[in-house]
Design a protein that fits this description.
Length: 260
């Protein structure tokens, strides 16, 4: 039985993931700093490079039976791949977006808008859709319809694993999942500004910095997924610290675009 407290956590995750990007969107609109074109290109780039191309590589490389790669059980290899994959695909995507699709949209505000589109759609796909899915599954479990409805689509052992996961996930984990979207969006905005500077200033090394920083930020989540980091709270604290650093950079980076 999924408790009302657990379901409240699902709703909280959903609301945080939805409202935070909307708040930033409204803020940028009121400040007349929003570029709809850059925002939509940010959304498009995330979907193509993260949700399509990166996922294809994951299918080819990651062992579906566990947190390891198909050709090795090395935890180091899994963590390295997990940290680098998102950084490489998403930063290449940002570079392509600014270099080829936004040739006339390379201001500070374009960087903010692109990053919001990139991070905002991720928040919706992970936090909002994830929250809605969790609520649907919770309702199916509580009404006794889960096995009957979902059972035909997957093996019994996988079905039991998913069911137990929902039964044993507490309120706090859902809330943390929503709160994680806050630093994640800030990080996406900051990295978008870094890559934009790489394109504007023709300094390819900035693009490499973006890949390295993105990979560094993903080390803790990859270590948690691999079971090296045992505490979700430690993992989220590390992500939050990167989010604070990203926020500071976002404000300080404005002076780098003063010639707009």
């Amino acid at each position: 039985m999924i408790t009302q407290i657990q379901m409240a956590g699902m709703v909280t995750q959903l609301l945080i993931s939805l409202l935070f990007p909307i708040i930033i969107l409204i803020f940028l609109i009121r400040k007349k700093s929003l570029s709809w074109k850059s925002l939509l290109i940010g959304v498009l780039i995330f979907i193509v490079f993260s949700q399509v191309l990166e996922k294809i590589l994951h299918i080819a490389v990651i062992d579906p039976a566990g947190p390891s790669l198909k050709w090795t059980d090395s935890t180091v290899a899994f963590v390295a791949y997990g940290a680098l994959a998102a950084g490489v695909f998403e930063e290449i995507g940002r570079y392509v977006g600014f270099k080829f699709l936004l040739k006339k949209n390379r201001s500070y505000n374009d960087g903010l808008s692109f990053g919001l589109g990139h991070g905002g759609i991720e928040a919706i796909l992970i936090g909002v859709i994830g929250g809605v899915t969790a609520l649907i599954f919770a309702n199916l479990i509580n009404t006794g319809m889960f096995d009957q409805t979902i059972g035909a689509a997957m093996p019994a052992d996988q079905l039991a694993l998913i069911k137990n996961q929902y039964l044993n996930t507490g309120f706090g984990i859902y809330v943390v999942g929503g709160l994680e979207r806050v630093p994640a969006i800030l990080i996406h905005i900051a990295l978008s500004l870094v890559v934009l500077l790489a394109v504007r200033e023709s300094k390819f090394v900035y693009f490499l910095y973006a890949i390295g920083l993105h990979a560094l930020m993903d080390v803790a989540p990859a270590m948690y997924q691999a079971g090296v980091l045992k505490s979700i709270w430690t993992t989220e604290l590390i992500i939050a610290l990167f989010g604070v650093a990203a926020l500071i950079f976002i404000f300080r980076a404005k002076k780098l675009f003063m010639n707009d």
